[in-house]
């Protein structure tokens, strides 16, 4: 575990197994999106925030590529720009912007980090009234972006070559998952493990292992293989709900209304990582988990836990 030095550090992802972490940072010397050397704690800026008091970033990495949405207000997250950063070349690229209504105000969008897999990224953004949202797919090597779905859809995730998203026939109705194959450029069938999923946007997969939450956010389902139906592996006690999921190579992290936990997908052993709430993200065998702030403050210093799958040898504990 290491604390952020002189400011707030929020993890966005990891640049490969031995590479730096991608973070949002608010420190004395730099505020913006940066690389964090996990050994030395040294920051290397990627892009500064124009207004550190209002700007925020939420992103995802799949090793080489980092993709994030940058917003410009603490009260409204609908106005944003989508950026990509190529670790191999150092190239920063604008992939897109939120869309404005005829009145000049950005259409409401679901707030969720873009999904990234290999050289592709995908995100959801509003394009019309009554909750209309489109799914965009970007080729990170070329910068080409296209719309692959429109309607009452929710933020996408990747499952191997598939972009997958929840979709309903009309606002307020139960969602089912739909998929698009990026290699073939057309809609595709879901793997068996995802076909029964209804009413949730919390799904995490590494292309082999899959976890998702029940619509009421009280149960977690898990499957070790795409062809195997998921089963309930954790049911929360009354008064506690899930808030997020993240999956890595050999690890599964989840956040509840109490704390963030990390489990081995090989042994099933899991342990509480943060004293309360928190946030988890990662890539490969590295999982980054940050503590929740101890008190209300503008960009507080947070502890950052850097955990590798091979180090996960904790006894199971309740949560």
Care to describe what's here?
The chain has about 325 residues and is an all-beta fold. Helix content is about 0%, strand content about 50%. The chain contains no helices and 28 strands. It has strands at about 1-5, 10-15, 20-25, 30-35, 45-50, 55-60, 65-70, 80-85, 90-95, 115, 120-125, 135-140, 145-155, 155-160, 160-170, 175-180, 185-190, 205, 210-215, 220-225, 230-235, 240-250, 250-255, 260-265, 270, 280-285, 285-290, 305-310. Strands 10, 11, 12, 13, 14, 15, 16 and 17 form an 8-stranded antiparallel β-sheet that branches. Strands 1-28-27-26 form a 4-stranded antiparallel β-sheet, with no helix packed on it. A hairpin with a 7-residue loop joins strand 15 (about 160-170) and strand 16 (about 175-180).
General form:
globular
User: Could you list the spans in which at least 5 consecutive residues all have pLDDT below 50?
Assistant: 314-319
Helicity, as a percent range: under 10%
Instruction: Give the assembly state of these chains.
Output: single chain
**How big is the Rg?**
19 Å
Query: How widely separated are the two ends?
Result: 21 Å
**Strand elements, count:** 28
- Largest β-sheet summary: 8 strands, antiparallel
User: What portion of the residues fall into strands of 2 or more residues?
Assistant: over 45%
Output the structural class: mainly beta
- H and E string: EEEEEEEEEEEEEEEEEEEEEEEEEEEE
Helical segment tally? 0
In short, what is this structure?
The chain is mostly beta strands and 319 residues long. It has strands at residues 2-3, 8-14, 21-26, 31-36, 43-48, 56-61, 65-71, 80-86, 92-97, 115-117, 120-126, 133-139, 145-153, 157-159, 162-168, 176-181, 186-188, 203-205, 210-213, 219-223, 231-235, 242-248, 251-256, 260-264, 270-272, 279-283, 286-290, 303-308. Strands 10, 11, 12, 13, 14, 15, 16 and 17 form an eight-stranded antiparallel sheet that branches. It has a four-stranded antiparallel sheet with strand order 1-28-27-26, with no helix packed on it.
């Amino acid at each position: 575990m290491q604390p952020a030095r002189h400011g707030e550090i929020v993890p966005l992802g990891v640049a490969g197994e031995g590479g730096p972490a991608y973070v949002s940072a608010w420190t004395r010397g730099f505020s913006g999106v940066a690389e964090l050397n996990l050994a030395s704690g040294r920051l290397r800026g990627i892009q500064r925030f124009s207004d550190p008091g209002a700007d925020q970033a939420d992103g995802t990495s799949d090793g080489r590529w980092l993709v994030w949405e940058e917003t410009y207000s603490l009260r409204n997250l609908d106005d944003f720009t989508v950026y990509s950063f190529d670790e191999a070349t150092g190239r920063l690229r604008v992939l897109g912007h939120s869309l404005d209504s005829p009145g000049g105000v950005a259409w409401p969008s679901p707030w969720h980090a873009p999904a990234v897999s290999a050289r592709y990224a995908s995100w959801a953004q509003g394009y019309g009234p009554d909750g209309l949202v489109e799914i965009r797919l970007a080729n990170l090597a070329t910068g080409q972006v296209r719309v692959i779905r429109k309607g009452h859809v929710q933020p996408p995730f990747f499952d191997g070559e598939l972009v997958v998203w929840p979709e309903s026939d009309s606002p307020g109705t139960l969602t089912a998952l739909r998929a698009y194959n990026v290699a073939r450029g057309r809609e595709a069938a879901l793997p068996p493990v995802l076909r029964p999923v209804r009413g949730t946007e919390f799904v995490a997969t590494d292309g082999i292992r899959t976890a998702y939450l029940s619509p009421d956010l009280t149960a977690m389902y898990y499957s070790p293989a795409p062809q195997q139906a998921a089963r309930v592996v954790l049911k929360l006690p009354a008064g506690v709900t899930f808030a997020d999921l993240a999956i890595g190579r050999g690890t599964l992290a989840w956040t509840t209304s109490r704390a963030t936990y990390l489990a081995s997908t090989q042994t099933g052993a899991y342990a509480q990582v943060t004293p309360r709430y928190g946030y988890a993200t990662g890539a490969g065998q590295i999982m980054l988990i940050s503590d929740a702030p101890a008190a209300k403050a503008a960009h507080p210093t947070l502890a950052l836990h850097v955990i590798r799958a091979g180090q996960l040898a904790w006894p199971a504990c309740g949560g």
